[in-house]
Amino acid sequence: MLEIRNLTKKFGGLTAVHDVSVAFEAGHINAIIGPNGAGKTTFFNLIAGTHAPSSGQILFKGQDVAGLRADQIARLGVARTFQATALF
Question: Which structural domains are found in the chain, ordered by start?
Answer without folding.
Answer: 2-76 (3.40.50.300)
